[in-house]
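#struct-queue
[09:14] JT: dropping the first one here, sequence first, then the structure tokens:
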Amino acid sequence: MLRKPQRVAPTRIAEWSEGRIVRREDALAGEEPLEIRLGNAPLTVTMRTPGDDLELAAGLLHSEGIIRGKEDIVSICHRNGNGTAHGENVVLVDLAAGIQLDQAHAQRTFASTSSCGLCGKTTIESIRARGVRPLDGNFRVSPEVLCRLPESLRSAQAVFERTGGLHAAAAFNAQGELLAVREDIGRHNAVDKIVGWALFEGRLPLHEIVLLVSGRGGFEIIQKAIVAGIPVVASISAASTLAVELAREMGLTLIGFLRGERFLIYSGEERLAGSPVLSAAERQS
């Protein structure tokens, strides 16, 4: 009998505490491979936490420039139970007739993305060459709203609450209202699930959204946000060098170490409403 993919799985553990070992039940975050197929042709396999798989597949296709909107998808579903193993770990996507895909190029791109990512200025130039729409320069969000977002995200992380082992991505509007939250083993998967949610809801591009991610603000996350039209990305931890370079190149507001009443602005401080900008000398005076 095939095991159904699980978002949360029970397990037996031994816990050492205060000088003794106690055996008890615990919960683990699920991790399963998801194969994405275009028609009958395999495209890529990603490790993910089961759940929101169709959003993940659609978001990934959008982030990689294969589709631009939901009208480019004729159908998307899990492989049905026709005797094939682990049908729920396979998503089948049929694209509209006009979508041209170089299968060999796509497989090379996904192989690079799933391992270490395409690196350096070559990747930034490829994003520029794809004709990605400019980010909204008029969007504003207040620092006070930003400071409230981590607690809103934390309280919405249902699976993290049970397992302590998942990343999350969340979309907020300028007033700090939580619009969607997705969890996954991978930070980039959680972002793709948000993009897939927006695609299915007809919300792309996300011109008036703040994306908050748990963990660090890495290059892959910034790349996906720019393609989705997101003007502000905030992270609980630090940003990386290439993420900052890409954010500055593409005019994205990138926030790091968003904790309590303090955060760092790596780029795009003009989108922070109502905050005076002081020099180091002015702060000390």
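[09:21] JT: and here's the second one, same format:
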Amino acid sequence: MPLGFHFLPNIGRLMVEMAVYKDKTIGKQMASLFTVLADAFNPLGGSAPPMQIIAPTVMDPLIALAQNKDWTGKPIYVENFNSLNPQPGAARAKDSATPIAKGLSDAINAVTGGTKYVPGAWSPTPDQIDYVIGQLTGGVGRELGKLSSTISAPFTGDELPAHKIPLLGRLYGSTAGATGQAGKFYENIKRANEVENELKGRRKDGISADDYLQDNPKAVELAARGNAAERQIRALRQMRSRIVEAGGDDAASKARQINERMATVMRSFNMQVERMQ
């Protein structure tokens, strides 16, 4: 649409989302509307989060990492959902992380006093490293990273999503595997944790949760299913790591089977959340 006019259909979209989805509160939708309006009339162009639009270009990568949002608003890396039980950066790697970034993540964690199970003073995830390398090297660096993932995937058993294939990934994509489901999955897990924290907080302070449950009748079920799905994914990731470390002729095949199981768990939980909403 002409510059500035695309905010009109977005008003309708945001209103419908607020009416259909319980988690799309008026506060969140108003914030989204502000972002849409700022983007529509922004003389600098772009659709990045507001802070990335306002900040000097050289600061964009740092702000993106701090907000954990790329220029499309999608998460860059998997966060530590439990600050009291932190995990090393390498343990939170997405399946699409490059081998180079995984090696650097392990090395940085070890040098700063971390182990395989405990994070060091600085323990970046491979996805954070991939993002920084991609920002510093541009398209050439990103395509080389994709090439390294493509070459190593048959040997490691890691899932190779279509968008990680050099050149072809610019023309073709798929949501079938774990990578295609992961973004929505972790959004839903975050929502489930927010619901659980609300219920636990009210219980701890002796406040009735009746009004909250009346507005969110599926809250208890969402929190329970979120905890179960998160535990399953964590266990499957650990199982896959042990298989890859042990090696063997069938290690890659077994790792791919676990990837398929992870994709099934994520897809199932995402569908359950959609039904509950």
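[09:30] RK: nice, looked through the second one.
[09:31] RK: The radius of gyration is 20 Å.
[09:31] JT: good to know. The chain has three domains: 7-47, 89-170, 178-276.
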